[in-house]
Queue: 3 jobs
Job 1
Amino acid sequence: MPTEKELIDERMRKLDELRKLGIDPYPYTFKRTHHAAEIIAKHKALKANDRTADKVSVAGRIVAFRKLGAISFMHILDQTGRIQLFFKEGAKGFDLLRLYDIGDWIGAHGVVVATKTGEVSVEVEGFEMLCKSIRPLPDKWHGLKDVELRYRQRYVDLVMNEDVRKVSFQRIAILNAVRDFFREKGFMEVETPVLQPIYGGANARPFVTHHHDLDLKMYLRISLELYHKRLMVGGFEKVFEIGHVFRNEGIDREHNPEFTLLECYQAYADYHDMMELTEDCYNHVAKKVLGTTKIAFQGKEIDLKKPWRRLTMFQAIKEFAKIDVEGLGDADLKNELQKHRLELPQPWSRGAAIAELFKLCEPHLVQPTFIIDHPIETTPLCKPLRTGPKDIVERFEPFINGWEVGNAYSELNDPALQRRLLEEQAKQLRSGAEEAHPMDEDFVRAIEHGMPPTGGLGLGIDRMVMLLTNQASIRDIILFPTMKPDEKK
């Protein structure tokens, strides 16, 4: 079996021969009239050896090639799928097929026929090289033990793996459906800075960079929230954005340092409105992309149909962890954390301890559930509960399949309380709490100008895609996931 170098050398020889024949192996354009899928759909009723009068021009990458003396068969792959090309000896350029290889890009025109096996094909009348590939596609790709190679060489994975292409196209359909949903609800799509002088909007460690001309330390955004609220101050009433955010955290099957987040903000709304919006969004997207609200995920059936269950964080801990946190003092909370091998919050706070105990509940939240009314220590950006203890805030997290898939608040618009809570966070940050919020004076100044009552919602798009495409790893729904460089290469 020839080595990769020998195969490359042979392709280089063919490349030279094409040029000596006056053929440009890398032309600038090609006039295609049809995609593979539309040809096959239109002519699916053809029977063996049927011919049509339809002339088409197709283009794609060669993924299969059989030479049988006076005839040759070739399958090409375009964005919509595969179609067979059928060459007969005597057709224009037939002898040049010896210079073509699997992996090359070809353009061809001819008539639509069905071969003797009944396969819809294009009987080629003329063809041309569109790109001579130098590096051969791998013989063995499916079942790779080194799965990371698939992620590093996604361009090969997309050629060799039909399921990967399907998931990639489904992701695009999901994003389009999300955008359509919010536009139909009257939200305006906005764009906010990725590079920020002060990060905020979530508890996360940021990526740090430097702007040389301004001699300014800057951060990649960890959230979209604070700039959206500035827009609400400025008079926007319903905004949304789908954007990449960056958190300098671990990588696993459910987390990638760069991920896609949707955030939306609505004036004169609260977290109850955001719960309804979440249900409606998931229902709309599932029906649009899958045709149903019932999804199969890794052997589990999940029904996204509204209404979703609602539980307070305290109720969830009592039901699933069998711990009644309302009746426990600080010492008892510490004992429960240690018993369940959970981290003690640093600095200590009762609310942070309760939020840590809630982690015991997450695996039980398979069907869609809103976990509402969180301790105030979990966020400095949320209104206190309107009726009830003021150390509880009007926040919810939606859970599906044991995953937190979003976050939402009745947004805090009391500037004095906002300043105090951010100052407390900044103090924790200075004390070494890497995920605490920094103080953002400009944001507080904006709130001091007045922000209307507002409901805010963030949804993780990647986890939505994982659920709707039945993919257990986030790397399988991101085209180019973050990877450690291949030191062997």
Note: The CA atoms of residues 244 and 260 lie 5 Å apart.
Job 2
Amino acid sequence: MDDQHKGGELPPDQTPNVVYPDDPESALHPDIDPPMPRALASGGGTRTPPPPPPTDDEDDEDSGMLRMSFMEHLEELRSRLIRALVGFGVAFLACLIFAGQLWDYVQAPGLAAFKTIGRGGFIAIDPMEQFSIIWMWTPLVASLFIASPWVIYQVWAFISPGLYPRERRWAVPFVLCTAGLFITGGLFAYFIAFRFALTFLFNIGGPMGVLPLISIDKYFDLFVNVMLGISLVFELPVLIFFLTLIRVASPSFLLRHSRYAILAIVILAAVITPTPDVFNLTLFAVPMILLYFMGVFASYLLVMRRENRRFPWRMFVYWALAVIAVLIICVAIAIARFNYHFVLRWPFLTK
């Protein structure tokens, strides 16, 4: 053997060939399927296998996504903004026709509070105050609630081209839940929270002989702050659901840090509540805490769907029907034996 062979080097014509499984004639171990490459069997280098081709499902999802340039995104944004403003303008014109009736609804909680304490009323200080509040701002705020489903749909239609086809199926639940929670928050503020707050505020100076004569401007500012503040807070389940959808949060994380969430909710309720008493603070905070856990439940359903697990809806419906049946029985007993009756204000059942 010559010196080159002693040094472990092979002549150029005897260098090992790198053979891969697609060459059946060059395998050293034909009984292995797929055959072992010759270079791998002799301790030579390895070759990184090519990445697997995308599956048909991924191809279908990618083909379902819309590809848009930056200018096309701007054009789509412009189109959606125009449509949202047109829908909002139509709602505003409709509310403008019924501005007088809408103002009756706006001042109804204040008049009820004046009636409860037995004194006080509304006044207009500025000459333009009645025109701006009754004929401009009242229809404007009302149109926010009426046009909210259309505006939310335009928001969804703008972001939907960047979603997979399976994610676009959330369009109807997204619009219904978001607009429904926004309107439900306004109803809760109007029929429950705002009325109790006004009764407390108007009567706080009563023992000192203070007569509450409230400017409609100040009253309307308080009305809008409470209505819009609570309506936005009622969007908490939707926010939690989308944080879970984009994998920023998870149900376990939300439950583990629920104590901090409850503390933040109480602080937020103290800011929104127009009165400093504990009763009204609780009246604001308890629904917000329930909304938080409702959002955690929705995120849990989303995670179960990702993991191909099924929620026991049948058992859940049975328990829900049982609770509703117990409540109906309690209300029937209260009406039949204790002379309670329904009223269109909180707590809706009085003697």
Note: The longest strand covers residues 121-123.
Job 3
Amino acid sequence: MTSIRHFPATYPLPDWRNFGVMLRVLLGVNFLTLIAALVQTATLDQWLARFVEMAALVEPLLLLTLGMLAALRDVLRRLPLRLGQLIVVGLVMLAAFAQQLYWQSLGFPESGSGLRVILLAGAAGGLLLLYFELRARAHSPAQAEARLAALNARIRPHFLFNSLNAVLSLIRARPQQAEAALESLSDLFRAAMRDPAELVNVADEIALGRQYLELEKLRLGERLAVDWQIEGNFSQIPIPPLMLQPLLENAVYHGIEPAPEGGLLRVSVVRHGDELHLAISNPTTRQAQHAAGNQMALANIRERLALYYDLEARLEITATPDAYEVRISLPCQAIKH
């Protein structure tokens, strides 16, 4: 079973193919270069010019090293942690040495002392690895799972009471439908109690979302219309649990329920290359009074996406006077154990 224990933030040796890791390395190295340029200049007027000169030497080395580490990611992460970290530092120093030889072969004597450049590159690599190790401790599996448990979307009490009342109204007139509704309600609460650190496949999330909307339809009747746009087979694609249902609940609670005439809820699940795109849109009405709760739920989902995917997932909102749409984009390739 794939879980948060296998995600980049919880392992001290970073995933060099992760966009968030690459961005942090780029920013970290350029920040260190900026500090080094400040130390080497006598006045602030010379600082920027010196930084540009140093960046011209650092950037090619940085990009070359990131490329090597990305290619060797799987090999490095199979090694013991300290050995993997030592090899990373060694590769950084080797790349610095190779670049130094290249610059000298082109006749640039001002490229600096070879030994100093190699040692500085190794020190910068060591500092970044220390940062990633400290960050991994802050996002250790135990702490990450505790945060997920606290953030995990909960089915609102008003939905439970409304659903039970709807089922009670069906017991005598339509007992089979009432039984099916209770089974769906049981499935929803079973999903809410699932380990939040474990991933589920998208097909199961879609099925859960359909069950939820069927329950809401018991009490809203024709006021709730749903347009499902599902493109592709999602049975093998992992996704964080309860990612779809809270968005559906928000759409019903904030968009459909306050409107006397109801409205159309649109749900789209589409795969584009290595990305999965979820989109849920609902009509808006002036009668809705739950905007604060809506923002809390979206902030909850944003933080859960950050814990699972770092910067590789996005949540975007489009609000107009007539409609409200939430879009989520996240990696959809299966994550290896």
Note: DSSP finds eleven helices and seven strands in the chain.
